[in-house]
Fold this protein.
Amino acid sequence: MQTRTSNKTAHPGLPDLPLPRKSSEQVELESQAREAGKKVAQATKATKVKELQMLEDLGSTLEKENRFVFSSAATVRGQHQKDQSKVK
């Protein structure tokens, strides 16, 4: 009985080998990197929340100003129309 030529260089036991273990240094570095990533994500989220709040405040301020402008423009327009009706 002979080994087939296709199996001559095959290593059938390799898929069953356990995964290599990480050193404590590698685990610590990964942990630190994960923590740094979380801090960056939190800072980014906080920045976005602040920007959104500023935009909402600006929007509400502009909305109030527009109401004032439109209401005073309507008042002026109404007075102008009354003045024009008196002229005719």
Q: What stands out?
A: The two ends are 122 Å apart (CA to CA).
